[in-house]
Write a structure and sequence with these properties.
Number of helices: 44
Low-confidence stretches: 1-13, 740-765
Mean pLDDT: 85
Number of strands: 0
Helix content: over 70%
Distance between the termini: 90 Å
Radius of gyration: 33 Å
Oligomer: single chain
Strand content: under 5%
Largest sheet: none
C-alpha cells in the first residue's frame, strides 16, 4: 500500500475528499479524515474507502471501516454492505463476509452474487449451490453475473447434472450468449468431463475474448487431447487474438505432456517477444515444460533467471530431475530450497520411488514436518511400483484418513503385482466406490489376463464413462480378443458414448493386427471432420494401421499431412517402411527426422537399425548405433544389440557378429543369440550354429525355438541323423515345441508361421 505525505484539507467537505483520495490510492490519509471528523459522511464515501481496501488487499483497515459503519448506524445501506461483503471476500475472509450477509435486512442480486462467488472461489462450493437455490426461493432472480459465479461451483464439484440444470435456466433467461456466462459454461462442461460439449459451446459463441480461448485451451491441456490445445493456440492467433500470460501458462503444459520440445521452444520465443518471460506463472510453466521434455538444462537455465523462484518452480525442477533419472541433483535442489511445502516433499518422495530408491523415499516420508493424504498415497504407490505390496498395505492400514485415491491406489498396487483376488477383496470393502475405482479394478483384471472377470465388472458398473469403455476395449485388444474389442467399440457408440483419442488409439491397432483394413477405413471416416482428426495420438494410430495393413502409401500421405509431428509419428512411419522391406526409405526418413530437430527415442533407433539390416546398410547401422549414447544419451537395450547382430548376420559377417556379442558390456540374452543363430541358418554355418545353440540351451533350456532353428540348419545340409539327435535331446530334456509357432527374425518380431508369408519352412520335430 502506497503511503503519501499528509496534506491539509478543509474537512468540511470530507465526503468529497475521501473518494478522491481513495482513487489516488492514498488510503492512509482517507482513513485519517474518517477518524478525526464527526461530520456525517455520504454512503459513497464509505463505498470508496472499502473499494480502496479491496484494491490494496487491506484487510485490517477494512475491519476498522466496518467498525465505523456500525458505530455510525448506517448498516441498512445495501450498497455499503455489498461492498463490505466484497471487501471481506477479496481479502479471503469468507466467515466475516457471510456474517455481514446474514445480518442484512434486505438483499439484492448483487448481495447474493458476491456471496455465491465467494464460496465458488474459496469454498466450500456446495454452499454456493445452496445459496443459489435460496436466492431464487426468496424471489431474487439471478443475473448473468450470478450464473457466471455459480457455474464454477458445479465445475469444482464435478456436478454435471446440476450444471446442466443451470444451463437450462440460462437458456430460458436468454443469457447463454453473454460472454462471461458462455466462458463459464465452457469451463464447467470441460471440468465435468464433457470436453466435446465444451467445444461445441465454444464453437457456437457469438463473440469470444482472450478468456474464452484460454479456457478452451486449458480444457484440452488438462483433460486432453493436449495436441488440440496446441492447435487451438495457433488458431487463436490466426483469428487475431493476442495470448496473455495466462494463455501461455496454459498451453505450455500441453507441450510438456506431449514431450513436444519444438512447440515448447516456439512458444518460449513468443513469450520473450511479448515480454512475459519474467511473469512468475509463465516462468513456472516454462520450467515444468522443459523438464517434462527431458531438456533439464534449459529448465535449470529458466529457473536460474527467475528473480525469486517460488515453491512451484523449485518443485517443478525437482520433479524434472527425478523424471530424468538425475535423482541426486533433485535431492541437492530439494535440500537447498529456502522454503518447502508439502507438495515439494511429495515430489521428492515420488522422485525417489520412481527411481527405485524406496528406502530413501520412506526416510523422507518419515522426516516430513506434516504429511497430507497425498503424501501417504505417494508412498503407497511407491511401494506398489517397486513390488513391495505388503509394505504398501501396512502403510495403507496406518493412514490416519483415507480418500478414494488411497483405496484406488492400493487396488492398482495389488493388480500391478498380479494379486487380483486381493484387489477385488479391497474393492468390495471400499466405503464408497467412484467410477475411477471400477476403472482401476477393470484395468487390473485385464492386465492380468482376466478378461471375463473384467467384462463382468464392466457390466455391473452403476455408471460407465469413456475411460471405462477404453479400459475394456484395450483389455480385449491386449489379450488377443480383437474381434471382441471391435464389437465393444460398436456397442460404445450405440450407448451414446463418444470415443476420444484413447479409444481410437486402442481400437486402430486391433484393425492393424487383424489386417482388418475395411474396419480401419470405416473408423477413419468417423474420425474425419471431428476435432480428433488433427489429434496426434489418433493420427499416429492411423499411420500405424495403414502401414501394418500394407497401405504404405496411404500411411505416408497421412504422415505428410501432419503439420506438427512428434517422435511417435516419425517412429511409426520409419517402422512401417522397415516392416515392408523399404530400408533405404526408412533411413532417408530418419535423416529427415534429425534435420527437423526431433530427437529419436529408443524405439526409433530399433526401427532404423532394423531398416539398415533389411537394406544391408552396415556402415549406417554402426553409425546410428554408436551415436545412441554419445549424441542421444540412450543406453542400448538387448533389442538394439539384437538388431546389430541381425544386421551383421544378414550381411554374412558372422564372425564379426560373434565378436560384437562377446564385446557387449552386458551379458547377451537369448534374443541376441537367436539373431545370430538365425543368421547361421541363412548362411549355412553349421559349426557356429551349433555353438550358438548351446549358449541358448544354457540360458533357456525349455525354449523350443533354438532346437527348431538348429534342426533346420541340419535339414538344409541334409544331416538327418543330427535332426534325430536334436529330437531326442528335446525329449530327454522335456522340451515341447509350441504348435504352429516359429522364431522368424523379421524386424525383431516373432510371428506365427501361418501369419507370415515369408517364413522359412520348418522341419517338424
Amino acid at each position: 500500500m502506497t503511503i503519501h505525505p499528509q496534506v491539509p484539507y478543509a474537512y468540511t467537505s470530507s465526503s468529497h475528499h475521501l473518494p478522491s483520495l481513495c482513487k489516488q490510492g492514498r488510503l492512509k490519509e482517507a482513513l485519517h479524515i474518517l477518524y478525526i471528523t464527526d461530520i456525517p459522511l455520504e454512503y459513497y464515501a464509505f463505498v470508496s474507502l472499502l473499494r480502496a481496501c479491496i484494491q490494496a488487499k487491506a484487510h485490517p483497515e477494512g475491519k476498522l471501516i466496518h467498525s465505523h459503519i456500525n458505530q455510525r448506524g448506517i448498516t441498512a445501506n445495501t450498497m455499503i454492505l455489498n461492498t463490505l461483503i466484497n471487501m471481506y471476500v477479496k481479502c479471503g475472509n469468507v466467515v466475516d463476509a457471510r456474517r455481514v450477509f446474514n445480518q442484512m435486512n434486505e438483499r439484492d442480486e448483487c448481495s447474493w452474487t458476491v456471496m455465491i462467488a465467494a464460496y465458488s472461489r474459496l469454498g466450500p462450493p456446495e454452499e454456493a449451490l445452496t445459496l443459489f437455490q435460496q436466492m431464487q426461493q426468496t424471489g431474487v432472480q439471478p443475473n448473468q453475473f450470478t450464473f457466471s459465479s455459480v457455474l464454477p461451483a458445479c465445475a469444482s464439484l464435478g456436478s454435471l447434472e446440476k450444471g446442466m440444470e443451470i444451463h437450462e435456466q440460462i437458456i430460458n433467461t436468454g443469457f447463454q450468449f453473454q460472454l462471461s456466462v458462455a466462458n463459464a459454461l465452457v469451463d464447467m462442461y470441460a471440468k465435468c468431463g464433457r470436453i466435446h460439449k465444451a467445444r461445441e459451446l465454444f464453437d457456437k459463441m457469438h463473440e469470444r475474448n482472450v478468456v474464452s480461448w484460454t479456457v478452451m485451451i486449458a480444457a484440452y491441456a488438462k483433460y486432453g487431447p493436449p495436441s488440440e490445445a496446441i492447435r487451438l493456440f495457433s488458431y487463436m492467433k490466426q483469428m487475431g487474438f493476442q495470448p496473455n500470460q495466462f494463455t501461455f501458462a496454459t498451453v505450455l503444459p500441453a507441450c510438456g505432456d506431449l514431450a513436444s520440445l519444438k512447440h515448447g521452444v516456439e512458444i518460449h520465443e513468443e513469450i520473450i517477444r511479448n515480454g512475459f518471460q519474467s511473469d512468475l506463472v509463465v516462468a513456472n510453466a516454462l520450467v515444468d515444460m522443459y523438464a517434462k521434455c527431458g531438456n533439464i538444462e534449459t529448465a535449470r537455465d529458466v529457473f536460474n533467471k527467475m528473480s525469486k523462484p517460488g515453491v512451484v518452480a523449485w518443485t517443478a525442477l525437482i520433479s524434472g530431475y527425478a523424471q530424468n533419472r538425475q535423482v541426486g541433483k533433485a535431492l541437492e535442489l530439494f535440500q537447498k530450497m529456502p522454503q518447502k511445502n508439502v507438495v515439494s516433499w511429495n515430489a521428492m518422495i515420488a522422485g525417489f520411488a520412481q527411481n527405485g530408491l524406496i528406502d530413501d523415499a520412506l526416510r523422507l516420508f518419515k522426516e516430513m514436518p506434516q504429511q497430507d493424504v497425498v503424501s501417504w498415497n505417494t508412498m503407497i504407490a511407491g511401494f506398489a511400483q517397486n513390488g513391495l505390496v505388503d509394505e504398501a498395505l501396512k502403510l495403507f492400514q496406518e493412514m490416519p484418513e483415507r480418500d478414494v485415491v488411497s483405496w484406488n491406489g492400493m487396488i492398482a498396487g495389488y493388480a500391478q503385482n498380479g494379486l487380483v483376488d486381493e484387489a477385488l477383496k479391497l474393492f468390495k470393502e471400499m466405503p464408497q466406490q467412484n467410477v475411477a475405482s471400477w476403472n482401476a479394478m477393470i484395468a487390473g483384471c485385464t492386465q492380468n489376463g482376466l478378461v471375463d472377470e473384467a467384462l463382468k465388472l464392466f457390466k455391473q458398473m452403476p455408471q460407465q464413462n469413456v475411460i471405462s469403455w477404453n479400459a475394456m476395449i484395450a483389455g480385449f485388444a491386449q489379450n488377443g480378443h480383437g474381434r471382441h474389442a471391435l464389437q465393444l467399440f460398436q456397442e460404445m457408440q450405440l450407448a451414446g458414448v463418444r470415443p476420444d483419442s484413447m479409444t481410437f488409439a486402442s481400437i486402430l491397432p486391433v484393425c492393424a493386427n487383424l489386417a482388418a483394413l475395411e474396419q480401419g477405413v470405416e473408423i477413419h471416416e468417423k474420425i474425419c471432420g471431428s476435432e480428433l482428426e488433427s489429434d496426434i495420438i489418433v493420427v499416429n494410430a492411423l499411420i500405424d494401421m495403414y502401414a501394418k495393413c500394407g497401405c504404405i502409401q496411404k500411411a505416408r500421405e497421412l504422415f505428410d499431412s501432419v503439420a506438427r509431428r512428434d517422435v511417435v509419428s516419425w517412429t511409426t512411419m520409419i517402422t512401417g517402411y522397415a516392416m515392408h522391406g523399404y530400408g533405404k526409405e526408412a533411413v532417408k526418413l530418419f535423416e529427415q527426422m534429425k534435420d527437423s530437430g526431433m530427437n529419436p527415442d529408443r524405439v526409433t533407433l530399433i526401427s532404423v537399425l532394423s531398416a539398415c539390416s533389411h537394406a544391408g546398410l552396415v556402415d549406417e547401422g554402426y553409425r546410428y548405433f554408436n551415436c545412441m549414447k554419445e549424441k542421444y544419451h540412450i543406453t542400448p537395450t538387448m533389442d538394439h544389440y539384437s538388431c546389430m547382430v541381425d544386421l551383421l548376420g544378414r550381411a554374412g559377417r558372422l564372425d564379426e557378429a560373434k565378436k560384437f556379442i562377446n564385446d557387449m558390456p552386458v551379458k547377451a540374452d537369448t534374443t541376441v543369440w537367436s539373431s545370430l543363430l538365425g543368421a547361421c541358418r541363412t548362411h549355412k554355418n553349421i559349426e557356429l550354429g551349433e555353438s550358438v545353440a548351446e549358449r541358448i540351451f544354457e540360458l533357456e533350456p525349455n525354449n523350443s525355438a533354438p532346437y527348431v532353428l538348429l534342426s533346420n540348419i541340419y535339414g538344409a545340409a541334409g544331416r538327418w541323423d543330427d535332426i534325430e539327435k536334436v529330437r531326442k535331446m528335446m525329449k530327454d530334456r522335456g522340451v515341447k515345441k509350441t504348435p504352429g509357432c516359429s522364431w522368424v527374425e523379421d524386424t525383431m518380431i516373432s510371428q506365427t508361421v501361418q501369419e507370415h508369408p515369408t517364413a522359412y519352412p520348418i522341419v517338424v520335430l
